[in-house]
Amino acid sequence: MLRIIDAGTGEVVEAAPARRGLTRVEAHAPGLDPTALRVLLVADLLVRALELGGTPVWGLLRAERPQTELRAAADTLGIRPLEDRAQAGPGLGERQVLHVIAEGAAAPDGVRVGVAAVEPARPAHAPGEETQALLGGDPAVLRLALLARPRREPVRLDAEALAEAGRTLGRWRRAVAGWAREPSRPVPEEVRGRLRAAWEDDLDVPGVLRVLRRVENEPELPDGARFETYVYADRLLGLDLARDLGVLT
């Protein structure tokens, strides 16, 4: 069961208190900047985690400015589309509402999922300038750099952080492509349990990444099981870890 710390009360709540009951995930992104993208990314992770647990989810975007550029940036980052809150109409009888907000921002009643700021690596001279610069490389590298820090801690996307994410992503994609050549093996239940325990504990994505690093280096684990583990975890992470299948010679 996914549990979230409510930023409004500090209490731990169940993200889906009613089994099979609809949960609404509403992302609040007032502008186009890296922090707004991080808010949308956390909303995307929430939707993915709830779906993996069998919970029906309704994802919405509440934005105060024209959404075209914001949605294009989100799509580039691999964030699945969210419905426009202004056009969505009344609720659909959801049993839980999760408002994903930047820390310190106001939100309507409901559980508040706080997201810390992305600290600028360099001054931006125009709205959206830093966001477009960050999206100029491999978007999955930016996504991994954002995932590597707990969502309630600020993250600084400097050259070192992006380079480290790039090295990790490249190594994992090459490894997954190599492991895919071996006979498939199921994800070990102990590993599956550790992955789920991490993301169900206040969406601890860095904990998920730590599990993958351990799986990468576990000498007794068959390569086919490593492959299935990474593919399974990528249903949450959205890093396209199997992108290079068939590319290696």
Automatic annotation (TrEMBL):
Gene3D superfamilies, sorted: Anticodon-binding domain of a subclass of class I aminoacyl-tRNA synthetases
Protein name as catalogued: Cysteinyl-tRNA synthetase
Origin species: Streptomyces pharetrae CZA14
